[in-house]
Amino acid sequence: MAQNPSAKFATMRGKSPEEAKFFWTGGPVEVAPRTWFASQFSGCTAFETDEGLVLVDTGTRQFAPAIAAMLRQRTQAPVHTAIYTHGHIDHAYGLDAFLLPGQTRPRVIAHRAMPARFARYAQTSGHNAALNARQFGGTVAHQSGETYQAFAAPPVPPDTLYDERLSISVGGVGFELKHCRGETDDHTWVWCPERSVVCPGDLFIWAVPNDGNPQKVQRYPLDRAKGLREMAACAPQALCPGHGGPVIGDAAKIAHMLSETAQFLETLVSRTLAAMEAGSPPHVDIVTGIELPKSDSPWLQPVYDDTEFLVRNVIRLYGGWWSGRPSELKPAPRAELAHEIAKSCGGALSLAERAEALAASGDFRLACHLADFALEAAPQDCAVQEKVAGIYEKRAAQETSLMTINIFHSAAAYARAGRPFA
User: Is residue 297 helix, strand or coil?
Assistant: First the structure.
């Protein structure tokens, strides 16, 4: 069965951040005087000031009411200012749930690149709905109208845009906003010096950074690393991440968490670039040939994104779209290629059976190549469908990254529907 964030929430409530890591949900946690953090899949930080609340992120439309209810246990102040760290639907779409009846529309601050993101979402809503269906283990047929509507401007869009840095003061409390590309090109991290609280958004998520997502647009690991080091240099006493629980009262630990994550990214990029410099081999040879950085730290485990995926994104950042294999420069249609391969192997069912044997031996990488060809050669063959679906379900069970697990579950769902995944 496909995993999803909601299923994790039931087991994470009440656990400490280090037990729950990326999936921690809970709150309100007081991280500094008159400052609270709450999370349900994504986090929100509320700074109470004499002029009202400053919110950093507002969750999804689905979960924002629960986050708002948690924060309203501590404060009934109206929202004066909201800051969207980036334009993803789990951070910038829930503000209306926090607003008091009849209150003045708050100021909403974001980086100048954010409106272009919302315009892109509106232009490609069906495409993005399909990507998210795969990312969370389903198919396009499982998507509701609500999912398609999600890929548009948020209910309360930003009205104040900035470029690289912005300093604001609300009720005598100062906030410094700094642009830093990472998971997105419109990302902001927020530093409140008076309360020694840093809000990194998704620049820190209690997991291997989401800089490799195989279906989404370009990410920027070195930019993120630079931003993480700048945050560490602030010596914050509280860290309120985009995902996972807060860390409070241990500046040395917070600096270590941020700096180690930066080092992880710098190492991965340097190793990838070294492999590219060695004659620019085909992309898959780079991906499977370099030593991936690893860490025993609970905040650097591949529980959402997969470290291998980050390598591909680095290649894309510094290179072109061609994989480096000559046959893939101007390839044949996949269906024709699949038919020829199946024909040479005695048919699609024989190819699927060989894929099963490889999977049984533990060679899932090779097995899935053959499984794809078998399904593409005979998408309506029920026996082939079941064998391919079984291979992908077994492969999903071997993985640790939620993104990988769910994409493989999605592949199984597509196979049973008689549709090649790609």
Answer: coil
